[in-house]
From TrEMBL:
GTP binds at residues 151-154, 203-211. Keywords: Cytoplasm, GTP-binding, Hydrolase, Metal-binding, Nucleotide-binding, Ribosome biogenesis, RNA-binding, rRNA-binding, Zinc. Gene3D superfamilies: P-loop containing nucleotide triphosphate hydrolases (3.40.50.300), Probable gtpase engc, domain 3 (1.10.40.50). The gene is rsgA. Residues 112-259 form the EngC GTPase domain. Binds 1 zinc ion per subunit. The keyword Metal-binding applies. Its EC number is 3.6.1.-. The lineage of its organism: Bacteria, Bacillati, Actinomycetota, Actinomycetes, Micromonosporales. GO terms for cellular component: cytoplasm. HAMAP family: GTPase_RsgA. It comes from Actinoplanes philippinensis. This is Small ribosomal subunit biogenesis GTPase RsgA. Residues 330-339 have a biased composition (Basic residues).
Length: 349
């Protein structure tokens, strides 16, 4: 079965990046899934499995964030013994990355080259404000367009009211209430994914990401398990990243259910996620205002008149401290890695 890669986002930009590596035994493809160093890749000739080439393994050893991931555009090489190796990951246009639990602040790429990142948050039992803010910072930092999707709206009488409340946490971000059971909001969600476009789904276990992927695909392409009624959390969840090709073009990347999300170097994303706080801070009398007891502090004035909730300011401060610490750790790790000689950039040639 043949595929038109343009339906998945292959365009002149990626074609120009690939041009220098184009040869008889090479072909471009898009990563659907990665399992322990073996990638499932979609090419014009169909789906193939490829092991990591030596140069890619060296890159990953230097920086784990360079591990091929769902959504990556890559260069494959076919060998005379019928092996296929993944020789190069083309530069990513957008990258959804979170901090791993290790102490050196390395990153784990959840998805690549998506146009939109949908933060998926269930209405039942109730949205978690802090989680929404954290995930939106991650989405903004990816370089893609963020979207906030509220799922399971059939479990409440007035989903529009909840959407208005949650919208205060997402300045500049569209908020879309969705119920797969009732088909509500699916048409609007489909506008964010179509020929040449990719939608990444980001959220906790049991948020409804796989259910959304199945609804968009019109078939069961991702396993869905029952959830506990008491807290709405999933008992069994998707443990891997998977790119789903949609029948009418475009793709959805279903990321693993996330219990905790560590922010890495996401200062820009944090500022956009907290644009309301940043705007207030820009109106303070002093440029170095700490927003505590300084005179002329616009942030404190907003707290006093109730236009800025104290919880919102506390969340911004907490995430900003986290980013500062992790940015320092990441800089130290990258500095150490630079001592390792880099392999040639044109290894495939």
């Amino acid at each position: 079965m043949s595929y038109h890669l343009s339906q998945l986002g292959w365009d002149e930009h990626f074609a120009s990046l690939y041009h220098r590596f184009d040869r008889a035994d090479a072909t471009p493809g898009r990563v659907l899934r990665t399992d322990r160093g073996v990638c499932t890749v979609l090419t014009t000739d169909g789906v193939t499995r490829a092991t990591l080439g030596g140069s890619v393994m060296i890159d990953v050893a230097r920086d784990p964030a360079l591990m091929p991931c769902s959504g990556d555009w890559v260069v494959l090489r076919r060998w005379p013994d019928r092996r296929t190796t993944l020789e190069l990951v083309l530069p990513r246009r957008t990258t959804l990355i979170r901090r791993t639990a290790d102490k050196d602040a390395s990153g784990q790429v959840l998805a690549a080259n998506m146009n939109t990142v949908a933060v998926v948050e269930p209405i039942h039992p109730e949205p978690d404000d802090a989680r929404v803010e954290r995930l939106l910072a991650l989405a903004w930092e990816s370089g893609a367009d963020p979207l906030l999707v509220l799922t399971k709206t059939d479990t409440t009488r007035d989903p529009a009211a909840i959407a208005r409340q949650v919208a205060a946490l997402a300045p500049g971000v569209p908020v879309l209430p969705v119920s797969v059971q009732r088909g509500a909001g699916l048409a609007e969600l489909r506008e964010h994914v179509g020929p040449g476009r990719t939608l990444a789904l980001l959220g906790r276990s049991g948020a409804g990401k796989s259910t959304l992927a199945n609804a968009l695909a019109g078939a069961t392409v991702m396993p869905v398990q029952a959830i506990r009624d008491a807290d709405g959390k999933g008992r069994h969840t998707t443990a891997y990243r998977n790119l789903v090709v949609l029948p009418d073009g475009g793709a959805v990347i279903d990321t693993p259910g996330i219990r905790g999300v560590g922010l890495l170097d996401t200062e820009g994303g944090l500022e956009r996620a907290f644009a309301d706080v940043i705007d207030l801070a820009g109106s303070c009398r002093f440029d170095d205002c700490r927003h505590d007891t300084e005179p002329g502090c616009a942030v404190q004035a907003a707290l006093a008149d109730g236009s800025l909730p104290p919880r919102r300011l506390a969340s911004w401060r907490k995430l900003r401290r986290e980013v500062e610490v992790e940015s320092g750790r990441r800089s130290a790790r990258l500095s150490r890695s630079r001592r390792i000689p880099a392999p040639p950039s044109s290894r495939l040639l």
